[in-house]
């Protein structure tokens, strides 16, 4: 092998990695991160490992640890196009903490990972501030993270984010399909918008229409980009408080939750129903928020595709005993969580599959119950 004559030394900086910029970003995000800490977080900020004092878990009879990891998908492309980066972090938190609360778990701490083509300290700090905001809303600590600069792999203005949360639930109080009974009531909790799923579909519609992110949309009352960057609603604390309101040591009036993410309402609800049961969901109990109806019409999106991609206004679902439904609805609506009954759970019928696209069973690899959607959305 013949060596080429190189006139200038090759350094990490000339290779595209700016260590000093990374240090600057850490300093800018420090106050936001430490604001999520309580006295259970040990070791301060910036250590090799995040540490959380697990002494509170000694009060559990059988503490079961839970975990979830996720990102926010191609929603980051809109944030990058609009140069608005302080909301993506809340989306990231919502995606993971609201997954573990489905089984009744309380989020304890979270870590994040940001990969970018070029570290711009202010941009990274904005992303992390959004994560910290979400952690505060979920009452969980942000105890560690990593920012990686990947020149040549990502463009200078490109980035992606991922995160993981750890939580705990009492072993004897885990919620899930085994607690669901025929006759149970399905309650919807309103989403704040699109949340963080289906953005590849939405971006395709926007591109086909030739719209710009800063176009004002009358139905939204703001720009297209502002509407689509609306942060994911975080349900964790509301769900945990509802558990405390309805369930006791031997009472499981609240059977479980379903976080409505990729796959839509039916596919995610089917995952938390036992085999042999079917939830019948009445579309006429709610109207599609404008963000969904406007974009669906613009893209001529078939209804089955729409329902299997987007949350359509329902971000979280609770399954409760029929005698507790009224109390659950009253409590949720009195605590700033618009909620309504959308259906009931019954026995799976032999002819359900004849409903075609309106019936879903066995979604996302889970051999659980089925969900039948019927009726038309309210106008």
How do the helices and strands line up, and which of them pair or pack?
Elements: H1 19-34, E1 41-42, E2 51-52, E3 63-71, H2 75-82, H3 88-100, E4 106-116, H4 121-138, E5 141-149, E6 159-170, E7 185-190, H5 199-209, E8 216-217, E9 222-223, H6 224-228, H7 236-246, E10 254-259, H8 264-270, E11 277-282, H9 290-299, H10 303-307, E12 314-320, H11 325-334, E13 339-347, E14 359-361, E15 370-374
Helix pairs in contact: 1-4, 3-4, 5-9, 7-11
EC number: 6.3.3.1
Keywords: ATP-binding, Cytoplasm, Ligase, Nucleotide-binding, Purine biosynthesis
Protein name: Phosphoribosylformylglycinamidine cyclo-ligase
Give the distance, in angstroms, between the N- and C-terminal Cα atoms: 73 Å
Return residue spans where pLDDT drops below 50 for at least 5 consecutive residues.
none
How many helices? The count is: 11
Q: Main sheet, how many strands, which sense, barrel? A: 7 strands, mixed
**Order of strands in the sheet with the most strands?**
10-12-7-13-11-15-14
CATH topology of the largest domain: Phosphoribosyl-aminoimidazole Synthetase, Chain A, domain 2
User: What is the alpha-carbon Rg in Å?
Assistant: 23 Å
| Percentage beta strand | 15-25%
Which CATH class of the largest domain applies here?
Alpha Beta
CATH superfamily of the largest domain: PurM-like C-terminal domain
Backbone shape: globular
Element order: H for helix, E for strand = HEEEHHEHEEEHEEHHEHEHHEHEEE
Q: State the share of residues found in helices, binned by percent.
A: 25-40%
CATH architecture of the largest domain: Alpha-Beta Complex
Mean pLDDT: 90
Number of strands: 15
What is the domain total for the residues?
Answer: 2
Helix-strand category = alpha+beta
Protein name: Phosphoribosylformylglycinamidine cyclo-ligase
Domain PurM-like N-terminal: 65-169
Family: Belongs to the AIR synthase family.
InterPro entries: PurM-like_C_dom, PurM-like_C_sf, PurM-like_N, PurM-like_N_sf, PurM_cligase
């Amino acid at each position: 092998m013949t060596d080429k004559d190189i006139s200038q030394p090759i350094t990490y900086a000339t290779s595209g990695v700016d260590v000093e910029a990374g240090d600057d970003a850490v300093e800018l995000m420090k106050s936001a991160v430490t604001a999520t800490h309580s006295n259970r977080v040990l070791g301060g900020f910036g250590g090799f490992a995040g540490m959380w004092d697990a002494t509170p878990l000694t009060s559990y009879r059988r503490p079961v640890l839970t975990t979830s990891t996720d990102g926010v998908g191609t929603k980051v492309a809109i944030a990058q196009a609009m140069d608005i980066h302080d909301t993506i972090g809340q989306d990231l938190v919502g995606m993971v903490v609201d997954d573990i609360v489905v089984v009744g778990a309380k989020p304890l701490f979270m870590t994040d990972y940001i990969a970018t083509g070029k570290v711009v300290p202010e941009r990274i700090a904005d992303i992390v501030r959004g994560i910290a905001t979400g952690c505060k809303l979920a009452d969980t600590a942000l105890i560690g993270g990593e920012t990686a600069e990947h020149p040549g792999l990502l463009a200078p203005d490109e980035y992606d984010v991922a995160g993981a949360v750890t939580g705990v639930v009492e072993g004897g109080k885990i919620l899930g399909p085994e607690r669901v009974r025929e006759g149970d009531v399905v309650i919807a909790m309103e989403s704040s918008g699109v949340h963080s799923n289906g953005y590849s579909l939405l971006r395709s519609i926007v591109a086909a229409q030739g719209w710009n992110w800063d176009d004002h949309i009358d139905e939204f009352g703001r720009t297209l980009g502002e509407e689509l960057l609306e942060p994911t609603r975080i349900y964790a604390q509301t769900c945990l408080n509802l558990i405390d309101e309805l369930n006791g040591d031997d009472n499981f009036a609240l059977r479980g939750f379903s976080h409505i993410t990729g796959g839509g309402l039916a596919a995610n609800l089917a995952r938390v129903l036992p085999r042999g049961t079917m939830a019948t969901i009445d579309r006429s109990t709610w109207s599609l928020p404008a963000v969904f109806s406007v974009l669906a019409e613009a893209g001529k999106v078939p209804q089955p595709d729409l329902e299997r991609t987007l949350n359509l206004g329902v971000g979280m679902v609770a399954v409760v005993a029929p005698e507790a439904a009224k109390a659950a609805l009253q409590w949720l609506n009195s605590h700033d969580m618009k909620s309504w009954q959308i259906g009931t759970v019954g026995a799976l019928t032999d002819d359900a599959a004849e409903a075609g696209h309106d019936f879903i069973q066995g979604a996302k690899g889970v051999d659980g119950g089925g969900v039948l959607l019927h009726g038309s959305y309210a106008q």
